Amino acid sequence: MKIAFWSGEKQVDTAFHMSLVACASVSISSLSIAVASGGYNGKELEKSFSGKRKDSVLKQPVDREYENTGQAILAAEQQEYFLAAGLDCLLGKQKEELTKQVVRANMQQIIKERMYYLPTSRKREQEWWQEDSFFVRLKQVMDAVEGCFDVIFIDCGNRKDDFTQSVLQEADVCVLNMNQESELIGDYYRNPPGFSRKVFFLVGNYFEDGLYTRKNLERLYRVGENMLGAIPYNLQMKEAARTGRTEAEVKKHMTEHGGGRNFEFAQELIRTTKLILRMAGIEV
């Protein structure tokens, strides 16, 4: 199952809000979840999950002729080098090589056996990145990752390339991320972009005293309350994401009881996450 997050706008924290929903999904369900970027690079998403590189070291065998000499030690040191890992490694493999064991070995484990993140490429993402010979394998990598988990969350940012379009069309649910004052809902209905038929509207960094409240947006655009979420702005969560502690902070917020902004944040995050999963056909 595939749930894609996308926005037609820049700087709306799409990766941040997707990471919140993914972490909340693990807390309220028994699903196994993968989190990935829909491109070569995903710095903001990577930052949310600590950004640790999972490179592995390969030691080439030393020629037995020299194993008892000082030259053998020197040769071993010279032949030790880093292999590509994460997305870079998976892009270099043929479809039949993308087994569950290989896929998970190249992912960063966030919660044991429950939640994994796919580290993105070390390559700089240029305008021509779609023309890279490895790019054609990105879809097969995402399909392989999806096959290893109950749900894969894909951060499409504000990309408009062909791969992003295919992800949005194939997704079981497309989450359209927007600012509170955005006209994105109206634009969506005026010019349907051909996304998945199941679209959920998500207002991130929401303020209850803003010009457009959730109720105002539902009334203005005639959107059902089960199709729109409004996750409140939360400075603690922002800082947690900046320092790679998203999962731990979400868990903390969701287990706290009482009033205050954190409680309201947790309640809306839970509500939004349940609505997205139910739209995808998952009962929670």
What does this structure look like?
The chain is an alpha/beta fold and 284 residues long. Helix content is 40%, strand content 17%. The protein has 12 helices and 10 strands. It has helices at 14-28, 43-48, 70-78, 87-91, 100-105, 138-148, 162-170, 184-190, 214-221, 235-242, 246-255, 261-279; strands at 2-6, 33-37, 56-59, 80-83, 108-111, 115-117, 151-155, 173-178, 199-206, 228-232. The strands form 2 sheets. The chain has an 8-stranded mixed beta sheet, sandwiched between helices. It has a two-stranded antiparallel ribbon with strand order 3-4. Helix 1 (14-28) crosses helix 11, helix 1 crosses helix 12 and helix 10 runs antiparallel to helix 11. The longest helix is centred in the last third of the chain and has 19 residues, at 261-279. It is globular, with a radius of gyration of 21 Å. The two termini are 15 Å apart. The model is unreliable at 51-82 (pLDDT under 50).
